[in-house]
Specification:
alpha+beta; Endonuclease, Chain A; 4-stranded mixed sheet; 13 helices; 35% helix; globular
């Protein structure tokens, strides 16, 4: 776990103002006013006051990825620094609760910690408080943080956040088998604001999505009016020989889409070179078997209006009969983009 220290605690440990200033440039990160997180072990004099904490076996340090994952890591630090200062009867919810449940978002949709409690909705600096009535069965402290349960968390995400945020998180939980669609749907009550979007999120989320990027791609298919793309289908030659499993394949046309995230190559047990060689051979086998194959990188999902010119052309290349009219439903995303309600 992260080692969180307040300015008062640092003073009590004997850290001077000069050493605190030095530590902020080295081994302490100021997350919010008066709250710091230890970022690494350090042998310099300014670190001596907290050396026993950084060497603790249970201490973990923040990770810098240099990519979109840093947003989730920054939010994890914010959550850790607010655990002991939550308002009365409040619990972490929405994206914050999803992180506590060890889910990995593609997009966080917010830079603020999200909580729920039975009080008027409020939008603070660094904190968004939802007005929610929570029963004892809706909350858990299993991870040492008070949070909404996983089904309640995913339902809240579907109701209050954009599809790009909720669907990858829901698909992860469904794929892991920790929830079922009916578990989530039980919290999507009639008359709730955002219910229409939540129902759509449930339709798009799928246990067959093997990575967050695949679930995110499924949302982009919806945004661009592409229908009929089925996840994780085996591709066979005319003689029935197995070629490989496609991330997506059209249920009628011989069209396959492969989403190449970082994990597909760099987390492969045989190394990135062998993984790339295998991927290339499968791609050639698919082409030789008569498939049209579109390869999308993770970055392709974000460029332009969600796709790069290359991938947009790929999607537009699908026969017109496999596309629906691009009249996407209105999705306003997180309520944090709207001004808070007055008293």
């Amino acid at each position: 776990m992260f080692q969180v220290l307040t300015a008062q605690q640092l003073r009590e440990l004997g850290m001077s103002r000069a050493h605190l200033a030095e530590s902020e440039l080295c081994c302490l990160h100021k997350v919010r006013r008066g709250h710091y997180v230890v970022t690494r072990r350090c042998n310099r004099g300014h670190h001596q006051a907290i050396a026993h904490l950084s060497s603790d076996e249970e201490t973990t340090f923040p990770t810098e990825y240099g990519d979109i994952r840093d947003r989730a890591e920054a939010l994890r630090l914010q959550i850790a620094c607010r655990r002991d200062s939550l308002p009365p009867n409040a619990v972490f919810s929405h994206v914050s609760a999803a992180l506590i449940h060890n889910l990995d978002p593609v997009l966080t949709g917010t830079s603020k910690v999200e909580i729920s409690r039975q009080s008027p909705t409020r939008n603070y600096n660094g904190l968004y408080s939802y007005s929610r009535a929570l029963s004892a069965g809706d909350t858990t402290d299993e991870f040492a943080y008070p949070a909404t349960t996983l089904p309640r968390t995913l339902a809240d995400l579907a109701l209050d956040h954009a599809l790009e945020v909720s669907v990858p998180l829901m698909s992860q939980a469904l794929h892991a088998g920790t929830v079922t669609p009916s578990d989530i749907e039980a919290f999507v009550a009639l008359g709730r604001r955002g219910r229409r979007r939540a129902r759509l999120a449930l339709e798009l989320a799928d246990a067959r999505h093997e990575s967050p990027s695949e679930a995110f791609c499924a949302v982009k298919f919806y945004r661009h009016g592409i229908t009929g793309m089925v996840p994780q289908l085996d591709a066979l030659t005319e003689s029935g020989e197995f070629i490989g499993r496609n991330d997506f394949r059209h249920k009628k046309a011989q069209v396959a889409v492969e989403v190449h995230g970082v994990g597909k190559f760099y987390l492969n047990s045989n190394g990135p070179d062998e993984a790339a060689k295998t991927s290339h051979q499968r791609n050639m086998d698919l082409l030789n078997a008569g498939f049209t194959v579109f390869n999308l990188s993770f970055g392709d999902l974000f460029r332009g209006r969600g796709y790069s010119p290359r991938s947009s052309a790929a999607l537009n290349g699908l026969p017109a009969r496999f596309r629906r009219r691009q009249t996407e439903r209105r999705d306003t995303g997180s309520p944090q983009s709207r001004p808070p309600k007055s008293g």
